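Cross-check.
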Amino acid sequence: MKTLMMVRLGAALGVVSLLTACALGNSAPAPRQLDLGAGAMNSASAGISAGGATALAPMPPIAVPPANAASLLTETMVVWRVGDQGQPQAYVTYRWVAPPARLVAQRIVDRLSLQGAVLQQSMGVDVPQLRLNLQRFEQTFSVDGTSSQAQLTLQAVLMRGSEVVGQRLIDIRVPAATQDAPGGALALRVATDQAAEQVAQWLTSLRATTRR
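Predicted model, tokenized:
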């Protein structure tokens, strides 16, 4: 009898625990989503003149396949760390709307589209391919926690068939206005626009050099 009562008590406690877990799960707020804002870029960063015409020369078609990235940047975690050598952490209550690798690549595609056609994959050796590798996309805090900055590190490689035409490593740091996830996201938005502009300028200069 005593054994039977203990079994029943254990079962009852299991049901209560399950109901409590469900209740807690339902009451926990969903993570807030962060993004890089609208795709349109301001005239200063996008190289647009006051009359609405593109200041940079038109570019021939280019292919931009999905970007490669460090494993943390293929998920939607919002990454932060303390100091450059600190272990990467993730905000519990925030998520990106899409993996950073996809967000950054789309921003670059939007920027390049202002100068010409951008394809998802190369149509042959006549269409160069821009390969992107996002190595860092995070908010880095000072050791005392009083300041932070967005850090974006991106490798861009221009291929024509199997030939490497050129490559560039872009490393951008932008101070965050507030020491939290939204402040870091805003700084990363600025860093992403700067990176997209650097890629566009680099491709323009590379084309001018190879045509000589």
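Residues 1-25, 42-54 have pLDDT under 50 and may be disordered. Strands lie at 32-34, 62-63, 68-69, 77-82, 89-96, 118-119, 129-141, 148-160, 163-175. Passed to J.P. for a second look.
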